[in-house]
Amino acid sequence: MSRRILTMDSFLLDIVPMLATIFLTICYFPQIVKNYKTKDVSSMSMPFWILLIVAISLLTVNAFVIFIKFGTFGYLVTEILNLALAVTVLAQVIIYRKKKK
Question: Where are the bilayer-spanning segments (predicted)?
Fold first, then answer.
């Protein structure tokens, strides 16, 4: 049986992104829940969320290349989750602004 030794590379490419994913998820959820409960997104900037999604999409492509080249999935998981959560907030902004009109 082969034991996998934790190297600095595997720590930086697998463990750190997973920790980032946990903190990222914790950061998004209070906002998503608040938006859902209050349906008030009037102070949220739609251009910010659109540009953020474009940026995260580009980072996801980069993370996919890292996955293909090095076989490390940490950044890819982080960016996919980040993208999904940002799209969720943008969807809330669009839907709840339409309902206010």
Answer: 12-29, 49-68, 74-96
The pLDDT-based confidence of 101 (bands split at 50, 70, 90) is low
Domain count along the chain:
1
Cβ atoms of 89 and 28 closer than 8 Å:
yes
% helix, strand, coil for the chain, step of 5 = 80, 0, 20
Residues 6 or more apart whose Cβ sits within 8 Å of residue 39: 96, 99, 100
Single-letter amino acid, residue 90: L
Indicate the SS3 state at residue 69: helix
Is residue 92 within 8 Å of residue 34, measured between CB atoms? no
CATH number of the domain that residue 86 is part of: 1.20.1280.290
Q: What is the pTM of this model?
A: 0.82
- 13 and 72 in contact (C-beta within 8 Å)? yes
Task: Compute the average pLDDT of residues 17-29.
Answer: 89
Question: Does residue 39 register a pLDDT over 90?
Answer: yes
